[in-house]
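As a point of orientation, let us examine one representative protein, giving the amino acid sequence and backbone structure tokens.
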Amino acid sequence: MPREISAYSNPLVKWARSLRDKKNRRAEGRFLAEGLRILSEAQQSGHMPEYIFYADDSARHPRAQALIQATENAGGMAVNTTRQILTKLSGKDNPQAVVGIYPEFDTSLAKIDRSTADIWLVAQALRDPGNLGTMLRTGDAVGAGGLILIDDCVDPFSVEAIRASMGAVFTQALATASWGEFLVWLRAGEGQLVGTSLDAELDYQEPDYARPCFVLTGNESAGLPADYTEACDLLVKMPMHGKADSLNAAVATAVMAYEVVNQFRR
């Protein structure tokens, strides 16, 4: 049976709210996800929440009812609460119908099986959670295996990154590593590393890309460090015909990913 909570002071509400903070997420190994679409994507990918919070009005939605029942069937706890508490958990004045709490994934490189996909996305020192979430969505759209985060990147389990991924955080493999660790892992098997740089001379549509292809995008403002570009098998650029000198990191990744995938389709 669902548990009913209506007090802000309830320990479970305080604990769930604390997961909006990176330090607490790391300590607890848990993260928040919100919305019927994202939680439904999670369910379809085999991920069920340990807790699902909902209000009376949202429980009337058939998909919400199904999620609540499925959570309880899987051994999770359903919490019937108020819209005000959902606002507190989500940090939004107009909260989603449901909020779930999930265990964080194992993000070690050892969990990545490069043979499962022809293309993988790699981001170095990515700082914006919106860009991270968009890259996950792009990976899902092109059928990538997942996203590998290099060096000091934004937390992929932040509320903002999860929200921007629109559920793709549950459909894409996710790994974190230092540059050195990634290079050792990459060179231990097959894989073409393709970096993007404004200093490259090669147009991104000229090369023949090889499977599996690892598309590497650098930091939003600084781009890839020089020694990182030197380690790439290919270094390419996208032509800029206007006054802007570069594309947004997530947009550049999407353009590159579709070029690689279109080559493979042909």
User: Anything to note?
Assistant: The chain is about 35% helix and 20% strand. The radius of gyration is 20 Å. The domain at 109-265 is CATH 3.40.1280.10 (Alpha/beta knot).
